[in-house]
């Protein structure tokens, strides 16, 4: 499989488009063509004032805040949709399951305190004393 290397200016243009996402929207709407955008970028440069309108208006910090607020609104709506009786039922089931598991550990001696006692006892299974 051969990999085709792009011209450096094409790579730079791709980076430029990533920084100006509204250009993609304009091309998808049919208002502009990629060839036209590339020619303008090549002739005017990426620092020209005409590109400001295509930049992403929101800084990265604001995007993070929006993502967090979207998450919080989703969580809030999920909590609103929950039935309190169902949640209580699930919590009681989990509690009884944990109690059962703890009982099994106690029955088979798998707790921390008992494991130390049995490990010392298993090292010397017979008690020998010198006369």
From TrEMBL:
Biased composition, class Polar residues, residue ranges: 112-125
UniProt superkingdom: Bacteria
Region listing for Disordered, in residue ranges: 112-131
Database matches in Pfam families: YlbD_coat (PF14071)
Protein's name according to its UniProt entry: Cytosolic protein
Protein's organism: Metabacillus sediminilitoris
């Amino acid at each position: 499989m051969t990999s085709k290397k792009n011209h450096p200016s094409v790579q730079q243009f791709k980076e430029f488009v990533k920084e100006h996402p509204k250009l993609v929207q304009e091309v998808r709407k049919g208002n502009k063509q990629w060839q036209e955008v590339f020619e303008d970028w090549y002739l005017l440069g990426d620092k020209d004032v005409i590109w400001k309108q295509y930049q992403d208006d929101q800084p990265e910090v604001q995007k993070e805040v929006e993502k967090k607020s979207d998450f919080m609104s989703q969580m809030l709506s999920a909590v609103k949709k929950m039935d309190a009786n169902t949640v209580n039922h699930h919590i009681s089931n989990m509690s009884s399951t944990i109690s059962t598991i703890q009982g099994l550990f106690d029955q088979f001696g798998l707790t921390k305190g008992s494991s130390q006692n049995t490990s010392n006892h298993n090292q010397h299974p017979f008690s020998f004393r010198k006369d």
